[in-house]
Amino acid sequence: MTATAPSPRPATPRQVADAYVDALTELDPLLATALGTRPGDDRLPDTSPAGAEAEAELVRRTLAELDRVLAEDPALAEDPVERRCARLLRERLDAGLALHEAGEHLRAVSNLFSPVHAIRQVFSMMPTRDTEDWAVLGRRLARVPEAYRGYRESLAAGAGRGLLAAPRQVRTVVGQLDEWLAGPYFAGVVAGGPEELRGELDAAAAAADAAVAEVRDFLRDEYAPEAEGTPDAVGRDRYARFARSWNGADLGVGTRLEEAYAWGWAEHRRILAEQRAEAEKVLPGSTPMAAMRWLRENGEAVEGVEGIRQRLQSMMDQAMDALDGEHFDIAGPVRQVEAMIAPPGSAAAPYYTRPAQDFSRPGRTWLPTLGQERFPLWDLVSTWYHEGVPGHHLQLAQWVHVSGQLSTYQTSVGSVGANVEGWALYAERLMDELGFLQDPGARLGYLDAQQMRAVRVVVDIGMHLELPVPEGVEGSVAGHAGQPWTPELARAFFGDHCGRDEAFLDSELVRYLGMPGQAISYKLGERAWLEGREAARRARGAEFDLKAWHMAALSQGSLGLDDLAAELAQL
Question: What per-residue confidence (pLDDT) applies to 1?
Fold first, then answer.
């Protein structure tokens, strides 16, 4: 038997980064499915404390390997692509390791992005083209009980160390799991499977749904009583670690968080003035909130879940056609994007999932319907510019398209929330600048989206650091200026200044409390994109070409906030 030759040691930061991705997909098969790199893989990750420690040890080895490579060839630090990759890899791995060493994986309970959600979501990414695909899905489904037991083991270990999620998060996830079980969810996943596998698929789905019930019961009956009294606010130190993870910047240094908070407040006031002017065009004499309520009840709407899915698909197709060649050069594979309906029990916010690395699975936008059958359009137009085209889809699909020129790491695993969400928010603003939001209702929806992101900066930092409510606050929070922000005050302030429905606002508040520092990444990221564009425009003067800048910016891969604006200025 011929022995397999060992892989050559990485010689560049990009090779170190991609070796890390290869090793990580071995530990985390969900990532392999997302990337589309291991077809037929039916495993699920080890969600126990041992699994998290194995990933942390991989991070430590990778950082040591990066140090070795740069020490052996210092000239690599002068190559722009290698330099960007090395900085990104080190910053991302350091940020993740800080969260691991603080034990955050032992209290990962939130209404988005927790292990229990990630395991469910992977089944929506798996192919079901033939019997073999279904067989792989069935084998993976049979592993769900083991994966969920590992998750419970991690939470129990955290509880033993006094590391607990806040009761609000626990109650929300219990409610989501109740919705999954009402389906039941996994039984629905296999309903379209082939008859020759019916027995195996049904048995695996039944066991998976039973495992969901076990997680629900554990959270409700064992974990929740222990979590009672755990505060919603995470405090400055935890917030700084989370904010670095989402933003690619150490915002805990000095007064950077307070400065971001003050800037968010100034943005809120600026956007509010614009909203008041736009509300006059929608409903003369009205306030922004009154105009948005009128649009929700009387504005253009689409009836039926399939009807809104088709409308969202049409919106993305039309935007693609209008922008290609004029403001972007869109490669053939990038033109493929699908509008989807999110499964029941999802959080309220729409979201996007990336294409596979070989485009065998296209990029997809997902709309949670929350039981609705009527869908007003005023606030969906700008949202789909954000989620689809020219937002998340154009950036993340372009990353896939250029991953061979950079590295898989820079165009997938190394994503920084502030870069990605900042681009998507920039994309909404770009469509306004280009004249795509002439309808007063759609433009008020855009301003509402901008306002929501400004309010996020204020309440996310304000709640977790318990900063004082600013002077000059209006509405139902007006009498609380100078008092520390609480979730109740934040919810009231949000309700005063966001035109979305109550269920959305409630879900958003839980999201901010359960994912500290994520909510601020949108506006801080957009600010960096705008600063980078303006700096490049000033540097190039009359030679500045917006389309060329867009394509160069979308082809440099992931960057954190500490590097983004400066790198964009050089394009």
Answer: 43
